[in-house]
Specification:
Helices cover 36% and strands 19% of the residues. Helix 2 packs antiparallel against helix 3, helix 2 crosses helix 5 and helix 17 packs across helix 19. Helix 21 links the parallel strand 17 and strand 18.
């Protein structure tokens, strides 16, 4: 036992377990009954009335037992079921119940017959469990409960706790108003409304603390716990209508997540970013140096898209803020749109469709060509370019590509040594280059003049890489036979009016940056990016980080993990190890990754150590960020 001068009184149902035990018993005993669902619903309603104090607990108990029609033999099956329904954070912090066993009690209006065997596994003996007991008839049917037990009476928990006469500060942890009444009566010093499994407003609004899990309770009380920092205290802000699956996966993991459907201006984001640990955006929100200056707790910026030019990557790195994106999740969506638009433009489908909509019938083969046998020039042979290459070749196109980096050709694709070579030979030119600022006006008047007369042009890459006035002029003059443009140099932050010089030009398909906007792509991104966020927050992994040394870490094994981010200058690593040696820490693993500006060292140490070492590591010169994980 660890002496604390405190006593901890736990409720059982919906606190230590995720369920109300009598509801589970009803599920077991009513199998095959035609009115099972109606009876269970009625039992749940009666349970809630009793927990919130709207009817006496005695009445609640009597009414539920009459509806149960249970037998003594059902209880062993109930216990087996309850063992699988322990609250997640309770189960994760089993050590707390072992180390503080002498200070922990259970006061429940449930029944010892099923509570005792469950809490015994958490080092809570029967003599510290205060609960009701069933009455059975001669055949073992449950017919009632011991009416003389104080816990069978209205507000019986008050008298029960009073009779226990506990020394020291008494803290009550429970989900219901019936737990709060012990605090209201003045015999408990604090009441923690436990909301991991159910949020009862009446209990929460009267609580000294709302604790969404046991980690939060242990953190508030500065008690040993399974994780270093409660996840509910880690605030995440997701902007620009990020797919709801991202919200679900992050909240299910215990993080506190706020969503905003639109992008925010710099001024709005500066105000909103305070206290935020993780920011999630798409392409419109600008994460500037001023925003980062206001971000007092920011650890991660995640782009739920491919591009990251909207983020000041250098400033993020200097502040130890890791940036992730989704470089692969929407590639298929972009490729399919490119293929579809190439076919539509080659066949003049968009023009013919517009004519029909305007009431004109113009059946003609003029300017309508198959893609089979035509030359496709792919500028940028990365993830998207390569996928497009394979599918275009399957359609019978001859594929040529140009990339500033050496890229291995797939299938029969032919590499062009210069951009001019590719432009000269291609019937269709499609852009798939990155958001490097050096690519401004990558395709301008000079490059367009190098294309075949009547060539088709497709841009699903970045808006600023094409000189729009030059493109419009080439389309109007007939130099180019058509174009599809999905991205623009300046795009609005939200849906509404939009103007472009390309509007109204025949055989030009204009779309509002929807290349990667399919349900499948957004779901993929909403799975990929949150996983990267959680891997970094939970273990320190930086694999696939855009601006940071990449390091894949092994799973922690009964250790504390020190994460030290520092400027990459000589001597820092030596100072880290000097501090660790001075405090005689047992290092079970150490990992280092650097780039030209930042060093990232991770030290796994034995759980027993002098906590002053943390202060010393934070004080090392050139430290950018430091945190402890366990």
């Amino acid at each position: 036992m660890v002496a604390t001068g405190r006593k901890y009184v736990f409720d059982f149902d919906s606190t230590l377990t995720r369920v109300e035990a009598l509801d589970v018993l009803a599920e077991l005993t009513l199998v095959g009954k035609s009115n099972k669902d109606e009876i269970i619903k009625e039992i749940q309603e009666i349970t809630n009335l009793g927990i919130d104090g709207d009817i006496s607990f005695t009445e609640s108990l009597e009414r539920r037992i009459k509806l149960l029609n249970a037998h003594k033999d059902d209880l062993s099956e109930l216990v087996k079921e309850l063992r699988t329904k322990i609250s997640k954070s309770i189960e994760a912090n089993k050590d707390f119940f072992r180390d503080y066993a002498d200070d922990i009690y259970v006061i429940s209006c449930g029944f010892k017959e099923f509570i005792d065997p469950i809490v015994k596994e958490y080092n809570i003996p029967s003599d510290r469990v205060y609960a009701n007991t069933f009455k059975f008839d001669e055949e073992g049917r449950i017919i009632g409960f011991d009416e003389t037990n104080v816990l069978a009476m209205h507000n019986g928990k008050i008298d029960c706790l009073k009779n226990m006469n506990l020394d020291g500060e008494v803290q009550v942890i429970g989900d219901g108003y019936s737990d709060y009444v012990m605090r209201e009566a003045g015999i408990a010093d604090k009441f923690f409304a436990y909301t991991e499994n159910v949020h009862r407003e009446k209990a929460a609004k009267n609580a000294d603390y709302i604790t969404p899990n046991l980690d939060e309770f242990l953190f508030v009380n500065d008690l040993p716990r399974k994780i270093s920092y409660p996840k509910n205290r880690i605030k995440m802000l997701l902007l620009e209508n990020v797919h709801p699956d991202a919200f679900s996966s992050l909240t299910d993991a215990g993080f506190s997540v706020e969503t905003v459907n639109n992008s925010l201006s710099e001024k709005e984001l500066i105000e909103k970013i305070k206290g935020v640990h993780v920011l999630g955006i798409r392409s419109k929100t600008q994460v500037t140096e001023k925003v980062l200056e206001a971000a007092d707790k920011l650890m991660v910026v995640s782009a739920f898209c491919i591009g990251t030019t909207q983020i000041d990557l250098d400033s993020c790195k200097k502040k130890g803020i890791v940036v992730f994106n989704a470089p692969y999740s929407n590639t298929r969506s972009v490729v399919e749109l490119a293929i579809g638009e190439i076919i539509m433009l080659m066949r003049s489908v968009f023009t013919r469709s517009t004519e029909i909509h305007q009431g004109q019938w113009n059946k003609t083969a003029a300017n309508s060509r198959e893609v089979r046998g035509k030359n496709l020039g792919i500028v940028g042979y990365g993830n998207i370019g390569k996928q497009l290459s394979v599918i275009a070749e399957a359609l019978g196109m001859r594929v040529y590509y140009y990339d500033v980096n050496d890229q291995l050709a797939l299938g029969n694709a032919v590499k062009c040594n210069t951009l001019e070579d590719l432009l000269n030979i291609s019937d269709v030119v499609t852009l798939h280059i990155d958001d490097n600022k050096a690519n401004l006006n990558f395709i301008g008047e000079r490059e367009i003049n190098q294309m075949k007369d009547g060539a088709i042009f497709v841009n699903l890459a970045r808006g600023f890489v094409v000189d729009i006035p030059a493109l419009a002029s080439a389309l109007k003059s007939g130099k180019l036979g058509g174009a599809a443009v999905d991205v623009f140099p300046k795009e609005p932050r939200s849906n509404g009016d939009f103007e472009t010089e390309l509007k109204g030009i025949p055989n030009v398909i204009l779309t509002p940056h929807v290349g990667g906007s399919t349900e499948e792509a957004q779901r993929n991104i909403a799975e990929f990016v949150p996983n990267k966020i959680m891997e970094y927050m939970n273990s320190g992994n930086t694999v696939d980080a855009v601006n940071f040394p990449n390091i894949r870490l092994p799973k922690q094994n009964k250790s504390h993990r020190f994460l030290h981010i520092h400027k990459n200058v000589p001597g820092v690593m030596a100072k880290v190890n000097e501090v660790l040696a001075r405090y005689e820490l047992n290092i079970t693993g150490q990992y280092l990754s650097t780039d030209s500006e930042v060093g990232y060292v991770i030290s796994d140490v034995n759980k027993e150590y002098n906590k002053d070492v943390i202060k010393e590591l934070k004080k090392i010169e050139n430290t950018i960020k430091f945190r402890v994980l366990y």
